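Lab channel / #folding
Pinned by the channel admin:
"Please post every new chain as: sequence first, then the C-alpha cells as a reply. Keep commentary short and put observations after the output so the thread stays searchable."

First post following the new format, from NK:
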Amino acid sequence: TVNAFRRRAISVIFDSDEDSDQRDVDLPNGDNPRVIRTGGGVSFTRPFIPNPFVEPEWTASLGLKYERVEIQDSDGDTEPRDELGNKLTVDDSGEDDLLTIQFGIVNDRRNNPRQPTSGSLLRFGTEQSIPIGSSEIALNRLRANYSFYIPVDFTNFIDGPEALAFNVQAGHIIGDLPPYEAFPLGGTNTVRGYDEGSVGAGRTFLLGTVEYRFPVFGFLGGALFIDAATVFDSQSSVIGNPGGVRNKPGDGIGYGAGIRVQSPLGPIRVDYAINDEGDTRFHFGIGERF
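Reply from TO:
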C-alpha cells in the first residue's frame, strides 16, 4: 500500500476540558494550536497461513513513513511555542521531520470480527524513527493491545449473544518525545465520561476496560462498562509538558451504560458515562470499541 497525506487538525493533546478546572493554554495570539502533517508512506502486509482457504490467525506488517509536522495558528503561521513559552515541536522553528520504520503483528482468534463473543485479539506494534532534518528526532514507540471475550448467559429470557469483553492496552515511548506524539487519554475510545484527551498526555500509559454486552431485542443491544487508565506520572517527560501545564490529572476512571444499534456499517454505539470526578457525558461511535 502506498499513500500520501496532508492533515490539519486541532490535537486533543493541546486541548483542555472547558467544563473542568483544567487550564486553557493557547498560542501567544490566543488561537488553538493546529497540527499539520504532510507526507507519505509505503506498507506491506502478509498473513501467515498454511491453508489459503482459511482465515489467517497471524498477520504481520512492515512500513516506512515520512512526515513533516508543523504547528500553526488559524492563519497558517508557524508557531513553535505556546503562550507560556513551552515548546510545541522538537525543533525551535516549529517544524519537525519524522521518518519512521513501522512493524506490527496481529493474532486474531475471534469467532466474529464484527460482534465477537469468544476468542481473543492481540495487536503489537513498534515504530523506530531515523533522525533526519534539523530536529533529528530519535524515538521508539511500543504499543500492545489485547482483547478477549467470554460467552455468558445471564439473561435467559432474551434470545441473542451475551459476552463479557475485556481489553488491556499499554504503550511506552523511548527517546525524544515531541508533544504531538504523546499518548492522549480520555474520551470515546479510551476513558468514557471524560472529554477527548482530558485525562492526560504521557510517555507511558496503561488502559483497561471491562464490558458486559447483551441483547435487548432484534437489532438493539446494550452494554455496561468501566474504563480506567493512567499515564504513570509521565506527562512531565514529554517535551513542553502539554498535559501537565493544562492540569490534566494523568489518570481517570469512567463507567456507565450504552446501547448498540445494529447497522450495515456495524454497531452504532451510544454510551452514557460518569467519570470519577462526577462529570457525565454521552459518547457516540460506529463499531465496538474492541
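NK: The first helix runs from residue 242 to 245.
TO: also worth noting, The chain has one domain: 2-286.
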